[in-house]
Amino acid sequence: MEKNGALGSPGIKRRRSDNNEHWLSLALQAGRMVAWEQDLKTDYVTRSQNSEDLIGIGSGPLCDVLERIHPDDRNIRAELGRNAELEEVTFRCLGPDGDVIWLATRVQRISPGRLIGISFDITELKSARDQIDAIANTDELTGLPNRLYFRKSLEDAISRALEEKYDVSLFTLDFDYFKDINDTFGHDAGDAFLKGVAESLKPLIAPGVLVARLSGDEFGVIAENLDETSATMLARKIARQAGKQVRYKDHALWAKVSVGMARCPEHASSPEGLIKAADIALFEAKNSGRNQVQPYTEKMGAAVIERARIVEEVSLGLPRGELVPFYQPQIDLNTGEITGFEMLARWHHPSRGLLSPHAFWSAFEDHRLSLRLTAYLFDKVMQDLRRLSGEGLDAGCIAFNVSNIAFGHPKIVPAILSALRSFRYPVKKFEIEVTEDVLFGRNEQPAIEKLTSLRNGGVSVALDDFGTGNASLSHLRRFKVDKLKIDKSFVDDFNAGKGDRAIIEGIIGISKGFGMSVTAEGVEKLDQAIALKQMGCDTAQGYFFEKPMSYEGMIDLLRSGKKYPL
User: Where is the EAL domain (predicted)?
Assistant: First the structure.
């Protein structure tokens, strides 16, 4: 009995209770936690002894701790536990030394008038998480927000705008011929250029304005609560800032910038819709001459959808053999003999019949498809010429058009020369046609090198549609070509007035002065052919002589030995 009584004595129970409280106090101290209890009727809070070490106050009224909580977070703590039996919240609070700490609090209401809770100091954990979030949301190269953060910010901005009834403007921008910087100066120069662009755009950052790098040379800007006029002004400022030169070693790096603009809710009320609208406007800006700001319109959307449909259909049609080369003869105006043929692509569309390039030109302008389409047609032409040679026939010089997009590829010239060698076709009987657009902007030096490489490789170069663009005599002096082609638009109307006739005479005179030959396109009448001959034009092509024809038609024409006397 005595033994049992000793074990159950109040003294032993008190010692055990003291030990439990001691270990609990140590655990709370080590874990930087405060245990507390709140009387909801009096709002008196009883806290564990270590609360002064953690938050600088002990037990007392709720208002004591509310004064130490960040003003934006006070309501979170004031209402804690009043609306639910179990809650978890996080808020900012002043520590004993005056520094801000983050407390995560878990509370349970154990009776209508009583709460018990525990608060954890998660400042270090919050800091680590913030650092991880910053890394995850920041573009490593430029230090700007990345696509992930941009997308979340756009969602939040649109949500606020729809609720508070104001506009959000979205701007997407990228750089025309940025690839040339990488190709010419190297990727380190490209990185330096993008960093410089980011620094130029950072001054635009303000409350309600976010600037981000989305990918490659594409940047995005979100601006809240701007009217249309202010948004347009900001778009122009974006273009000016992004268009500044960037110094890299001894080089001044520069590229034209195109900007697309869309607005919520006018053009779309979802992040996906607004991004799509801005991207369509950006595409239109680049497609309409580049280096400009382009607001979105509904008409653009329909045009872009149509272009995308064509690109997809052409892509699917290539492996099915739907695209084929046709050939239009070029006629010597003095002898009437065929000097060669220009290859003109045709598309045997499954439902629309035979289509000319005008119907699917967007496929040649698509960066992903253009080179593939060019290589496909080149291969088809080589196969036709091989078969033609097997028939004992000579087509003369074959002119092959290369789109501006395909010509911009750094390996286009080696690919052409390699293919000619592979097919063992005489390079002197092959001509590459390019338009004036390849001569401008940052394309200039790479274009000179490519044209020079072609001519050094024995391939002739013709400048197509001459007179319709911005090429000048200075360009002809720097860009060595073998032939100028007079555009059909001048030939159509040169008998109607003196203007077009004078232009044709001028082009012919220029060509002779530079030692080039000249070909007129679109000759449809006898009087046009005769007048061109009298003006000294070397060759011509057009419906007056022959329409573009299939490979089989070309064989029949060559076998006939036909001449076209004038």
Answer: 307-562
The token pair at 158 is 């649109």
Domain with CATH 3.30.450.20 in the chain: 12-126
Q: Please tell me the predicted confidence (pLDDT) of residue 443.
A: 58
- 3-class DSSP state of 518: strand
Six token digits for residue 224: 């809240």
d(CA 347, CA 173): 34
Residue 404: both structure tokens together: 């501006």
Instruction: Give 477-523 pLDDT, tens digit per residue.
Output: 777 889 999 988 888 876 655 567 888 898 899 888 889 999 999 99
CATH class of the region 139-307 = alpha beta
181 by DSSP, 3-state: which?
helix
Burial 195-225 (b: 16+ CB within 10 A, else e): bbbbebbeebeeeeebbbbbeebbbbbbbbe
The CA distance from 259 to 448, in Å, is 29
Query: Backbone phi, then psi, for 368, in 5-degree steps?
Result: -80, -30
CATH label, 12-126, candidates 3.30.930.10, 3.30.110.40, 3.30.420.40, 3.30.450.20: 3.30.450.20
> How far apart are alpha carbons 378 and 424 in whole angstroms?
14
Q: What pLDDT, in 10s, does the model give residues 232-245?
A: 999 999 998 988 88
- pLDDT of 437: 72
- What does the pLDDT average to over 27-42? 78
Q: Is the pTM of this model over 0.70?
A: no
Instruction: Give the lowest-confidence range in 292-301, 365-374, 439-448, 484-493.
Output: 439-448
| Homologous superfamily assigned to 323-555 | EAL domain (3.20.20.450)
